[in-house]
Design brief:
heterodimer, A: about 120 residues, mainly beta, 7-stranded mixed beta sheet, 4-stranded antiparallel beta sheet, globular, B: about 110 residues, about 0% helix, about 55% strand
């Protein structure tokens, strides 16, 4: 049981390049989400999905796209990378949304640097 | 607005007890979470409180006072492996998590 798998673990981009962070979970979780973590700040929600075919914006969605074609996969696309997107990105999933006991399982994180 | 406050850093001695406080202000409330995050790793779930009172889970306990918008995480018999950041998160009326910046706990021998 792999849990939540994120790739790549590290990535360096130049300003204006695009890339996709991959996220896959094998727990049959309905809810999946992407966060970014910056020094001195709490985790900030980028996008989330409550099921296949359904996505919604979080607190900081600008510059990012997502899709959820299957229950298992939730890729995050950076359209045109900017230095402000230098961060550590976490994918997280849970059994369902809309529940107070929505315990998240996180991927190992992807450290992205934009030059 | 929505806000979570917790101390930036705390230091404690191996074998001792430490209390990490968290105050929250969110639009509605559906529970308070604590996560542990070791340096360079992913956050992992520690506890969830939705009712007032103390929940004990081994060496770790979590307390909630909804009327005061206040929670704490109590760690007993500290071990070196408890050196980590502890993240407080409140779930708002839309079941979205609002995260604090985390408290870095340093354990000294």
């Amino acid at each position: 049981n792999a849990g939540v798998t994120q790739t790549p673990k590290f990535q360096v981009l130049k300003t204006g390049q695009s890339m996709t962070l991959q996220c896959a979970q094998d727990m049959n979780h309905e809810y999946m989400s992407w966060y970014r973590q910056d020094p001195g700040m709490g985790l900030r929600l980028i996008h989330y999905s409550v099921g296949a075919g359904i996505t919604d914006q979080g607190e900081v969605p600008n510059g990012y796209n997502v899709s959820r074609s299957t229950t298992e996969d939730f890729p995050l696309r950076l359209l045109s990378a900017a230095p402000s997107q230098t961060s550590v990105y976490f994918c997280a999933s849970s059994y369902s949304a809309g529940s107070g006991a929505n315990v998240l399982t996180f991927g190992a994180g992807s450290r992205l640097t934009v030059l | 607005g929505q806000n979570i406050d917790q101390p930036t850093e705390m230091t404690a001695t191996e074998g001792a007890i430490v209390q990490i406080n968290c105050t929250y202000q969110t639009s509605g409330f559906n529970g308070l979470f604590w996560y542990q995050q070791h340096a360079g790793e992913a956050p992992t779930f520690l506890s969830y409180n939705v009712l007032d009172g103390l929940e004990e889970k081994g060496r770790f306990s979590s307390f909630l006072s909804r009327s005061k918008g206040y929670s704490y995480l109590l760690l007993k018999e500290l071990q070196m492996k408890d050196s980590a950041s502890y993240l407080c998160a409140s779930m708002d009326s839309n079941y979205q998590l609002i995260w604090g910046a985390g408290t870095k706990l340093i354990i000294k021998p």
